[in-house]
Predict the 3D structure of the following.
Amino acid sequence: MNKNMTPDNDTNPMDEILKRTLQRQEAPDGFADRVLARLSERRSSQKPSLRDSWLRFLAQPLVRWAALAAFATAMILSGHLHNLRRERAEGEAAKQRLMLALRIAGSKLQLAKSRVNEINAGQPERPEERE
Amino acid sequence: MREKMPKKMLLLFLLLASPILRAQDTKIPPDVEKLSARAKETVEVTMDGPMLRWASKFLSSEDPEEQKAAKVVANLKGIYVRSFEFDKDGAYSASEVETLRSQFRSPGWSRVVGVRSQQDGDNVDIFFRLENDKMAGIVIIAAEPRELTFVNIVGSLEVDQLADLGGEFGIPKLDQKSLSKAHKGDQR
């Protein structure tokens, strides 16, 4: 068996190839600048997404305050509307009660009136009244 | 002894005057409220001045019925109604109704209509409360075999408004012809 072919031999051709391949090499001059320039070029040419633009817009303090004010106004308005609607419903119910009371009162007056009419109609004329 | 006399007289005056004052201030007599326990159906309407004014705001000016109601309500201070329907005759006694009527046979009140019908058993009493020769209120007590209604309307009410009350609100005006027709129908 060849002595050079033993695994612990320092001059293994495979090792040599690997050493040469993985050997540290200096980057060519201006490589880093070129990479950075290309990156900045790509960033500037890339359009911002809609979501990003919205987020950037909402992040502004004035917009945040305006949104908060709008939310508060909407809450107050909806509460006011709810109260108005409830008041309207209660008012309608009160009106119905009032109409019911008037109807009952009216019907009883009508009953009295009809009975009085009935009595008047049923009364025979007295002979002395004729004379 | 002499100092005590005015106090005694004041007490006596208050005792004598209390039923009169009570009749004038009573909106719904307690005797009426007791009847609700025996009733099959009860209608209760209690509307004081502020409630009346608030409710009348919702009366439509386009509806003729509500227009008339608004006129009637304009000068009223309160409407109090209790109507009881019983499931059998004799659920309340005549003496109970008489006790109720007697509360309005006091100064300030005038009984203007009192109808007693032996045939149908319908008894209606209408009392007016007058203040300075002006009507300040009306009480209607209608006792029918299975129904008892107490109505107390507080406030000034003109006679024509009263007529409006009688002939409107979906209840047909009863003239002599319709009455006789109804009577014939009953006989059949």
In short: Residues 105 and 111 of chain B are 7 Å apart (CA to CA). Strands of chain B lie at 41-48, 76-85, 109-116, 123-131, 134-144, 147-155. Residues 168-188 of chain B have pLDDT under 50 and may be disordered. Chain B touches chain A through 45 residues (CB under 8 Å).
